[in-house]
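Onboarding guide, step 5: your first structure request.
Type a short instruction followed by the sequence, for example:

Predict the 3D structure of this protein.
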Amino acid sequence: MEGQKREMLYSEEEVDLYELCLVLKKRLGLIAGLFVTAVAAAVAVSLLLPPVYRGTFTVRVPMVSEMQTGNVFNEGGARRVPLINPKEAVKLIANLDRLREEEQLGRLSDMLGISSEKAASLVELTAHVPRDVRDFVEVVMDVRSPSVIVDFKEAILRYLNGNRYVRERISLRRASLLSLREEIEGEMAEVEAMKRLVGDQIRRDGKRELGFNPIEMDREVIVFKQMLRHVETEIKLLRGFETVVEPVVSDRPVRPKKVLYAAIAGVSSLFFGVLAAFFMEWLDRNRRGRRE
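The system replies with structure tokens like these:
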């Protein structure tokens, strides 16, 4: 007896797929209407939204040569390392985008040194460090007019190089290099002076036991000259942020994405249309049940 009750209960709860298909067929007009309306609305909104263009460029952070102990550069060329951590540059650029989000266009305009009209055309500004790269930062900016992308690139470079922290790091590094150059020049001058004294003594007294090989002084001078060339090169290469890849501007707007918006609207409308069809059918059955 209990088994029969369970079978009857389960049979009542089973979903009749054929009946569901009949409901969908009956409410096909409702589903189609919601689909067409949603897609048309998404396309209309996409056409009304202003186009957004994307520009991408890459900057290199200030680089310096890594020196060994004793101010001697690595043989075969010094390994160059970032003076400014690329992640710090990403944070500086994120500060600009935060001003945009907070709609502080006046302050954004002052920090970048551009007009308020150009600042207002900025839609989004992001930056990231490419994978497996430690000295580059890729900057992506979305603007309403592609003509301002180059201006924004120059403004962002000025902003990065004008940062007080960046200026101080570069200034300290330059002062350190200048001091190292003076030290090398002084030590090289002492060795050359000693070399001249030894040469004069040898010419005056002839061969004499000196206690060291004079050729070693020539080697020291050569080493000092190599170090001096490295330092001079380092001073010349000590610069701020530089553009390594000029802005690449998209030919077509990246937003609004009409096809994507229409697809999302279509799928969503189909889902809600099916729910609405079953809900309407449920209401009709309840009304008929009350009348009976």
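Each response can be followed by summary notes, for example: The chain has two domains: 2-49+256-291, 53-249.
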